Amino acid sequence: MTLTSIIWKELRERPTAMFTSVLAILLGVTALVAIRNVTVFSEQEVAGKLDALGANVLVLPKGVTLQDYYAADMHKETIPEEHVAELAMAGLTGVEGLSPKLCVPITLQEKSATLTGILPQAELQTMAAWQGGQLFKKHVGCKAKINVANATDDAPEALARRRTVQDLQENDAILGADLAARTGLKTGDSINLLGESFTVIAALEPTGTIDDTRVFAHLHTVQRLSNAGEVVNVIEVMGCCEDVANGLVTELSTMLPNTKIVTIANVVETQVSINRMMTRLSYLFLAILIAVGGASMASAMYANVMERRREIGTLMALGATPHFVTRLFLFKAGLLGLVGGIGGYLVGSVLALVLGPNFAGVAVQPIPSLALIAAGTAMLVSFAASYFPARRAAGLDPCLCFQEV
């Protein structure tokens, strides 16, 4: 008989003990896969929300009281624009973009509006290139790719979603959706702002915020026309969600002690803490898998060795070597671990599809790579738990085995 045929014969004749071992491993893998599945897609959901939000950290003058996130720059207090250069060149991990802003009240075609000066990202990149440095040091583990440039995001219309614009000339203007609708202005029209002519290069999509009533122009042009000097009302920071929750705010506060650093805590810290809790739970169930699954497998293998003493003795009397007997038990353990791992992956994936929308509020899809992790972990646990029982079986004396009644 071959090694494979012996194993299949025993699995058919003694299914109960083997089923119990597989079940323990399957349940552990199921919990591990389900929680990990939900965690991965929850992290992606958080990243997507932060990407849509754009800025998630605000650098404000010390005395400002934040009432509304999207109106954070609607005040008269200012901070030096040089803080922008300090942040850009600091190389803080997780900072994906900066957007300094200066607001001035204006009237456009007898309609009240806010002229907001913004600094295009291209000028920040030029500043870094002139000084031979890297603009931002991205966190390689960051799930949100907030400032990744492409053809769509470089368009002026992307300002409504990303809170930044890549290029903006000194006399270009971008209109908020509500202001464009009220004035009837469209792309290509000329407008007069603070005594100077501007060309409308885009009208934004509605955002449902105060940005819909704004006119956006180049920061330095707004500073010059308003005689405000080299100052801004706010610096919006696009930060990686993990780093915002892991100390980026503290670093910013240390670097700029005369400013107020505000983060969207309820979006960032709460969501990230939930993801951390889910990750810890997946590690907990991994430990349970190792402990319970391993103990169950070891117990079943020890019992199997005791039940099959005479059969093992017969095999050794017929010429089976200790190495063959060890392989017999380890191969069987690996097969049971593989079945438990794949079964646990399938059940865990189905469970995640149900729990994701109901428990975490996110849509979940199966993750194929988890199948390899589940099968590999289950087989490793099975091998480890069966090693000593297999060695014990290989060390049995055939003569003593035949003397037992």
UniProtKB/TrEMBL annotation:
Pfam families: FtsX, MacB_PCD. Residues 284-398 form the ABC3 transporter permease C-terminal domain. One of its GO terms (molecular function) is hydrolase activity. The gene is macB_4. Residues 19-234 form the MacB-like periplasmic core domain. It is an enzyme of class 3 (hydrolase). It is a multi-pass membrane protein. GO terms for cellular component: plasma membrane. Its main location: membrane. Belongs to the ABC-4 integral membrane protein family. The chain crosses the membrane at residues 16-35, 281-303, 324-347, 367-388. The keyword Protease does not apply. This is Macrolide export ATP-binding/permease protein MacB. PANTHER family: ABC TRANSPORTER PERMEASE YTRF, MEMBRANE COMPONENT OF TRANSPORTER-RELATED. It comes from Symmachiella dynata. Its EC number is 3.6.3.-. Keywords: ATP-binding, Cell membrane, Hydrolase, Membrane, Nucleotide-binding, Transmembrane, Transmembrane helix. It is found in: Cell membrane.
